[in-house]
Amino acid sequence: MPVPVSYLAVLLIWATTPLAILWSSESVDPVMAAWLRMGIAAALGWLIMRVTRIELPWNKAALQTYGYAAIGVFGAMCCAYLAVRFIPSGLMSVLFGLAPIISGLMSQWILKDNAFTTLRWFACAVAICGLLVIFSDDIALKPGSWPGILLLLLGATLFSFSGVMVKKMAVQIHPLAQTVGALLFSLPCFGITWYLMGAQMPVDLFQSRSIWAILYLALLGSLIGFVAYYHVLRHLPPSTVALITLITPVFALLLGFWLNNEPLTTTLMGGSLIVVGGLALFFFGHRLPGLRDKSA
Question: Bridge-partner residues for 295, per DSSP?
């Protein structure tokens, strides 16, 4: 697949995922919708591996890697599926856009990476200011929205922790094999959570939009999107890949407004742009004249 096509695919998939998550859980229990998505994706991924003869390692290091990756698959996605009923779907992309900053903070602690520069700390402060602006919007975020906000922040944290720990393991596994392994590890977690939360399965109430959204997320969100993302990572510099994190929140907000009649107030859009601005400073601030990074 050509690199530009892969890049565009990642942009479109990441921008449409929040709305697809909302639609998939409209008539299906949220945890069950996530469980079905991951189960279908795992089955398809396993079939592809069999056809292409990609090995699924089961040594100790590989199993640990799958376990850490499953924290991101189960922890982050379970939080996202539960949160989307409390807040606009587009805001999910904004809050998950903070994951690179959270990952950077965790990397300093876990991987002993270089300390943040003054400029990067300033970028974090800008992003937090953007969140405060978003949280002040009483139209887009009603008082009952706080559980969704907290769940998404927890999900972004778990997603970041998962990525940092997988990087720490540094096990050389084919991306598709790692995805399938993580999905297989996450499936029992989704099943147990669904059971503990009431095990609701009103099949007669399932709507076609939810079913199609689950299939879309399984095929594109969990398989094609992942393969395209790693293809892009392999051929483009990290700074170019980071642009995806800046672009998708805006598209996700607009899609929620156009396709699902979600509120898009000046405060919400302004706060989201401030968050994106903070992310831009975090990734590219060192390139601005007069803002060369200096050690904090």
Answer: 117
Give residue-wise pLDDT tens across range 245-273: 788 988 999 999 999 999 899 999 999 99
Q: How far apart are CA 113 and CA 91, in angstroms?
A: 30
Which residue do the tokens 């199993």 mark? 63
Cα–Cα distance, 263 to 249 (Å, whole number): 15
**Residue 12, amino acid:** L
The CA-CA-CA angle for residues 240, 246, 249, to 5°, reads 140
Asked whether the beta carbons of 295 and 116 are under 8 A apart, the reply is no
Burial class, 122, CB count within 10 angstroms (exposed 0-12 / middle 13-18 / buried 19+)? middle
Q: What's the DSSP call for residue 115?
A: P
Using CA atoms, how far apart are residues 95 and 72, in angstroms rounded to an integer?
15
CA distances, 79 to each of 1, 66, 72, 153 (Å): 32, 19, 10, 9
